Amino acid sequence: MSEPRSEQLLQVNAVTKTFGGLHAVFQVSFHIAPGEIIGLIGPNGAGKTTLFNVISGFYAPSKGHIHFKGQDISGKPPYKLAVLGIGRTFQVVKPFAGLTVLENVIIASFAKHPKRRQAEQHAWRILETTGLADRANAQASSLTLAGRKRLEVSKALALEPTLLLLDEVVAGLNPTEADKTIELILSLRSQGITILIVEHIMRVIMNISDRVVVLNFGQKIAEGIPRDVAKDSGVIQAYLGEAPQ
Amino acid sequence: MSRKYLLLILAFGILLAVPSVIHDTFFLRIVTEAILWIGLAISWDVLAGYTGYLNFGHGAFFGIGAYTTALLMKLCGWPFFLALPVAGVAAGIVALIAGIPTLRLKGAYFAIATWALSRAIQQVALVMDITGGPDGMRLPSFLHPEFFYYLMLGAVVAIFALYWFLLEKAPFGLKVKAIREDDQSAMSLGLNPTWIKLQAFILSAVPTGILGAIYAYWITYIDPASVLGDLVTDQAVVMAVFGGLGTLIGPAIGAIIIFLFKTYFWAYLSDYQVLYLIILGGVIAASVVFLPNGLWGTVTGYLQTRKALKQEPVSQGKTDKGAQHV
Amino acid sequence: MELLPQATIDGLLIGGIYITIAIGFSLAYGVMHIIDFAVGEWIMLGAFLGYYLNLWTVVDPFILLPAIFLVFALIGFLVQPLVYRVISGKKGNPVLMGLVFTFGLALMFRGLALTGFGFYSHSIPSAISQDSFSLEMGSVFITIPYVRLAGLLYALAITLVLHFVLKKTDFGRAVRALSQHREASGLMGINAKRISSYVYGIYVGLSAMTGVIIGSIFTINAQMGGEYTILAFFIVVLAGMGYLAGVPWAAFLLGLVQSFFLIYLNPSYTLMAVFGILFTILLISPKGLFGRGV
């Protein structure tokens, strides 16, 4: 496998993750350059979330390595990766329900701003960016799904990450909300944040990704610019179940 | 917020003045003990309400503090104020050792593991000669009710202030609550759950050990039943659960109420001592079912809903488009 | 060294009893995800009911077992909705609250028992309490009290019945489905509430029966509950929470440890030793000996 090239922000090298006898992810390799938006797609059960979990430290890879900024991060726990600059959202949102929206983001801000006052100021700035500032003092549990997804992103953002892993942040939103989220993602990229996004909604992925990686049954079956991937027969077969006539 | 501060300062002032006004030793001892229970209830709540981990062996730290003090003072001739911090440290060390394997797991494991540990410690104290076995130990006598009143008051106020600062003001409090709410999310945000829980555990244990030390010197006689028995834990649990988990004022109020009840009960109904256990258990069970946020939690919750209902509806004041869908 | 065979047999016999303490407990956990702090108290209450029934009717406790089971299964069935309500609550942390709740129940039961039965110890006399038989193999001499053997046989019978019910009946399948995936089971038409009630009832009934057996082998008193709760928990954690197949192994292991301490070392340190073992296991393999815990 190729040597980790320090120009790449993230290098996934032949990563395999096995549970019991099952390969959830098998020999997946790809890289992400700084400033890219990479889409990760595949049918249900393809291993996208597992891969996310491996990259973000919740699982250690059974085989293979992951390099971030040239450093081997395979198997490091999530809290270390957060400090190194990897932020993530969860597919099933995980707000700190009993705390306020602001408090949720303050906690995330502690990573780069250990003192309460600076963390609070930083949190306000983040909430302004993501549009939740007017709900700052509401209980996180009182937010709608769209609000909670925003909160997920806000928390990950508050880490001031270099790489942001977004897991289905658009799914479940109505078209207006979805468009606002896409706007947000693009603005994040223009601020210099690299993004790896998992999404089922094709128009989102195809429109905003620079490149797309396709998984099926845990293996990478295609990679390239959206237009090419959309025409790939293997990809079409994976989604529709049969080769195009 | 400032109203709460004023009330607390007022309460503190009153408590400071008590011994000058009341010279009845018996009454002074009752108030001293009430203050002790406030300390025990809030220290239990640090781990239970704030961190979400139930320590059903909380009394063990109390006993460890008491026995450490007794051993140091009686067998090694140490002065009290030297033994006191060591007692706290001893409790802290036990928390560290017990916490490392058990805090990594879910709260249920921790609950029974700590309970089992406290029983094991009680067993050990019962059989070891050095601790006097079931007959316990006597400490050098120092009968001075006012001294102990001020000592207990000072200790509990300091503990309360420490907890209040760390859990309500400092980042630590929010981190602890984050772990309690969702430790996976917390991990993704840079928090190490096991380390934070361990800190909370030690934070809960050390003051309890110190309170045990004061108790030992105050009462001058300790035995496994009184300082290592289940009753210390059981009462702290009732007080915190009934008062309201996750706050400092809740357990304090719960402590006062339950302690008053206990004193009355034992004074007038001492024939029915075992009835007390039934009532304690019943109050715990009933609180969980009917008052899950405890007395204080329910009161504050009610006041907050009233305040929210009285305010203007949100849509009238906000025209910001961003507010609509979130 | 001559005592080794006896110590081993003793350990196995007592381990058998421990199986019954733990198996219901593990089952209840698997289905309802509740750690019932009152398990020792159910055992104690069952033991006392057995004691009094035996006193009044002069029927052998082993014959009373089914009656005890039915009575307590009913009690468990009726208590369960309250427990269920606590663990299904939206407020706060339901698992935590469930634990506090059963802790309160245990305290209450202990108080009730002390009020009703006092501080005295009793034992339940059985037709087989006194006798034992001996095996002699060369220089090795082993005594096996009948009543302990009966306890072991009872434990094995219960394990087999439970195994059969869980693997071969519809009810058992529903129970297993529920413990594996609550939501999916609901979608398949399994009534979680009702099954949980039955399971809790079975668990309480089993625990109560075990109390009677314990009463005929050992003594019982109103405060015995705590020790058995700890034992049940240890076995279940060693076996792996919710992993029923591991229970017999863990139970026998615990029985052997206890027996060796009794014969070779100071029994007062047994709890500390068991705790030490548990600690070490938890450090190395948090999912129990077999790595199959939840």
Describe what this molecule looks like in 3D.
The complex is a heterotrimer of chains A (245), B (326) and C (294). By secondary structure, chain A is α/β, with parallel strands linked by helices. Chain A has one domain (10-240): P-loop containing nucleotide triphosphate hydrolases (Rossmann fold), CATH 3.40.50.300. Chain A contains nine helices and ten strands. Chain A has helices spanning 48-55, 78-84, 101-109, 116-130, 145-158, 175-190, 202-208, 226-231, 233-240; strands at residues 10-19, 22-32, 37-41, 63-68, 71-72, 86-88, 163-167, 194-198, 211-216, 219-224. In chain A, the strands form two sheets. Chain A has a six-stranded mixed beta sheet with strand order 6-7-8-3-9-10, sandwiched between helices. Chain A has a four-stranded antiparallel beta sheet with strand order 2-1-4-5, with helices on one face. The radius of gyration of chain A is 18 Å and the shape is globular. Chain A starts with 9 loop residues before the first strand and ends in a 5-residue tail after the last helix. Chain B is mainly α and 326 residues long. Chain B has a domain at 24-228. Chain B has helices spanning 2-21, 25-50, 58-75, 80-102, 107-127, 145-169, 171-181, 183-188, 193-219, 224-227, 230-243, 249-268, 273-290, 294-310, 314-317; strands at 137-138, 221-222. The longest helix of chain B has 27 residues, at 193-219. The radius of gyration of chain B is 21 Å and the shape is globular. Chain C has a domain at 21-222. Chain C is globular and about 60 Å long. The longest helix of chain C has 29 residues, at 4-32.
